[in-house]
Amino acid sequence: QQLWRHSCLSTPWAPLSFARRNSSDRGDRGEPPAPSLKGNYRQLCERAEREPGPFWGALARETLQWDTPHHTDCDWDFAQGRIRWFLGGRLNVAVNCLDRHVQHTPDKVALIWEKDEPSTEEKITYRELLDMTCRLANTLKRNGIKKGDRVAIYMSVSPMAVAAMLACARIGAVHTVVFAGFSAESLAGRINDAKCKAVITCNQGIRGGRILELKNTVDEAVKNCPSVKCVFVAQRTDNKIHARSHDILLEEEMAKEALICPSEIMESEDMLFMLYTSGSTGKPKGIVHTQAGYLLYAAVTHKHVFDLKQDDIFGCVADIGWITGHSYVVYGPLCNGSTTVLFESTPVYPDPGPVWSSG
């Protein structure tokens, strides 16, 4: 809240635009240097309030890996509802979350998957997660998914679900993750509103000791979703599915694909994902989050709010179907090169103990 008080503006609704280019360009025009990003959290807040545009522009250059640096930090006019960040900048979110860490720490653990079955876990390194993401991204591309297409993800918390999100980001597709406990009707409503071309799901899910028939729910939902052309099905359990004409067995197809998938270079303001509100106050509304602004927010808040240290293992029990899971299970930790814990179960199954023993 401190970062966005109206006192930082000359007038509450004045349109503002801040331009700051690469530091190498500043000296020729006598521009002031970027604000220092060192200091404690309160000091950072004060600097952000004094000069929000230059502050966040410098932070974006320091935190993210860019293919093309941005030329304008921000451009907003609250009266018109126009808010844009890091104009001219181009990057790829998956590269920021995976590739740049693989260059230096490929064997560092990216994910610790605490499965629903008590005392079972899997560890996935950054290299392994990149390989999984690239294979999945190539599978999507081979089946007609391209930049700008919308993809629904209806899966329990798992490495495959994280790879699905990052695979979409890698090729420029827009993901919309739906909590894997919603009904077929709720799922269909979100698929239709987003006009999703594909759905990624599992044969079944497991949560709190219960089997969730995810594929059956998807089958029921897509009967009323004319935009869906294919359903990618991963195997979470040994249960065999009855494959329909539009079904694609995900692991089988991924095994045929290359480990390298070129990343789609995206504009800062291109859409990264849509996430729907709960619907408690009316029809669920799809909230759009864009590439650079969202990723910077997730990385910076994850680092400073939780006082992240280099070798910390970070655990957040939120489901990836919610914004907290997006930000503090997936994008924030991975952008920061951290180890993040995936909790497939509930915090109290079979008792509260597993949460405290994880990692």
UniProtKB/TrEMBL annotation:
Where is the stretch described as Disordered?
A: 19-40
Q: What is its EC number?
A: 6.2.1.1
Q: Which positions are tagged coiled coil?
A: none
> Where is each AMP-dependent synthetase/ligase domain found?
98-353
List UniProt keywords, sorted A-Z: Lipid metabolism, Membrane, Transmembrane, Transmembrane helix
Extract one GO BP annotation from the record: lipid metabolic process
The record's Gene Ontology cellular component field reads: mitochondrion
The regions listed as transmembrane in this protein's record are: 151-173
Q: Where is the composition biased (Basic and acidic residues)?
A: 22-31
The entry's family comment says: Belongs to the ATP-dependent AMP-binding enzyme family.
What is the protein name stated in its UniProt record?
acetate--CoA ligase
